[in-house]
Amino acid sequence: MLTFQDRVRGVILGTALGDAMGAPVEKLSYDQIREKYGRVETLRTSWWKENEPVEVTLGRQRGHGIVTDDTLMTIALMNVYNIEQRHVDAYDCGNEFVKEIAYRKIYVPEFGKEALIIDRLFYPEKYIFMRHVLANCDPREAGVGNMINCGAAMYIAPIGIVNAGNPRAAYDEAILFAMGHQSSYGLEAAGVLAACVAKAFDGEGTVDEIVETALKYAKDGTKAAIKELTDAARELRSEKEDRDKVVHVFHSIIAKYSPMGDDVHRKLEKIGVPSNHYTPSRLFSIEELPLALAYIVLHDGDLYEALYDGINSGRDTDSIGVMIGVILGARYGYKALKDEDIALLEETNRLNLMERADQFTEVARKIIMDDIELNQKRTSLL
User: Fold this and answer.
1) Which InterPro entries match (predicted)?
2) How many helices (H) and strands (E) does the chain have?
3) In sequence order, what are the residues at sequence separation of 6 or more whose Cβ sits closer than 8 angstroms to the Cβ of residue 147?
4) CA of 52: how far to CAs of 59, 60, 64, 116, 121, in Å?
5) Are 106 and 117 in contact (CB under 8 A)?
6) Cβ neighbours of residue 12 under 8 Å, at least 6 residues apart?
7) Which residue of 80, 195, 225, 276 shows the fewest CB atoms closer than 10 Å?
8) Which of 57, 30, 328 is nearest to 193 (CA)?
9) pLDDT at 265
10) Where are the domains of the chain?
11) Tens digits of per-residue pLDDT, 183-216?
């Protein structure tokens, strides 16, 4: 029988696994991945930019098990809980979380040295610093004006852990915290993913029940995208080996909710050209979460098969991998990961992932027990 600790390890190591496996091919399309790699099914994959000049790589290294900001931001959020020992909200995003990403150094595997996480972050994640520190805004309004993306959802899994078995509370806390970073459907995805992780801790929960949880709490375009994609995934199960067809169907569906398509690069010729890319909308959804859930459904919860197909589908491959990894890591625990993958992740990244997971297990257990005690007191009032 899986323990709470097994599942927490599964979430944290699942984060790193999906992140590191998807990172070498991030921003490539499905066709580009197939042409260059055939199919990615290992952590020991070379980065597609590996032989590019430093002005292209920006001094970073990827591939062969190296994780990115998805994992580093997840660790930063875990550290906030370790410090506060309680539930969190937007004020914590603007306080300890800012300190974690902008003032406290950690080993950054892409740099191969100790550094500040903010030095690695993409602009919409650096927005956290700009809004909370430089603009000194109301923390609950800090996410307004940001580029709408998956940046909050990609690290939100610890909130699912501290609300294990309580998806409603996970959704609410994720929204309360991530509004300090994101808004619109970027914020919505964070809430829904946290709810899915919390539900996955229910040992008797099925893949369909996890999807039902997502649909129960999701709103607007996020809900519609998840519904349409997971429905399509069920219909395609008998044809899942026809990967060209699966990707075509999935991308045709998500195009209704996310207008970027394969061209995710911010090129010079795009400057000044109006579009709906990354703008707030009640009709849109991020791509990563609906696609992750669709691949989980397609493979009926098979961790590696869902990961392989999700990553090889292209675009934001590391975050798709992370979202598959955290949901199924919570459902199956860390032993669902290959021993050699865990060993490589630990050795390559020098982040003590297992140790961090075990420390966070105790903090999450305390927070959950505090909730239980409070609920017992409330019950006595009835």
Assistant:
1) ADP-ribosylglycohydrolase, Ribosyl_crysJ1, Ribosyl_crysJ1_sf
2) 18, 2
3) 123, 124, 127, 278
4) 10, 11, 17, 24, 20
5) yes
6) 74, 78, 157, 329, 353, 354, 356, 357, 360
7) 276
8) 328
9) 72
10) 4-261+277-380
11) 999 999 999 999 999 999 997 779 999 999 999 9
C-alpha torsion sign, points 45, 49, 52, 58: negative
| Apex 115 CA angle, 180 and 137, nearest 5 | 20
Q: What is the DSSP letter of 46?
A: B
Beta strands in the chain (DSSP E): 106-108, 113-115
Cα-only R_g, the chain: 19
Handedness of CA 243, 244, 247, 249 (dihedral sign): negative
Rounded to whole angstroms, the Cα distance separating 11 from 308 reads 17
Report CA torsion sign: 374, 380, 381, 382. Answer: positive
Mean pLDDT rounded to a whole number for the chain: 96
Closest CA to 12 of 122, 158, 128: 158
Please, what is the end-to-end C-alpha distance for the chain in angstroms? 35
The amino acid at 179? M
Burial state string for 48-85 with b = 16 or more CB within 10 A and e = fewer than 16: bbeeeeeeeeeebebbbbbbbbbbbbbbbbbbbbbeee
- 99: how many CB neighbours lie within 10 A of its CB? 15
Measure the CA–CA gap between 221 and 182, rounded to whole angstroms. Answer: 16
Structure tokens at 221: 């375009």
pLDDT tens for 144-175 read 999 999 999 999 999 999 999 999 999 999 99
SS3 106: strand
At which residue do the structure tokens 């580009």 appear? Answer: 32
Q: Length of the chain in residues, anyone?
A: 382
348: helix, strand or coil: helix
* CA atoms in the 13 A half-sphere facing the CB of 379: 6
Distance between CA atoms of 154 and 70, rounded to whole angstroms? 6
Burial of 181 (0-12, 13-18, 19+ CB in 10 A): buried
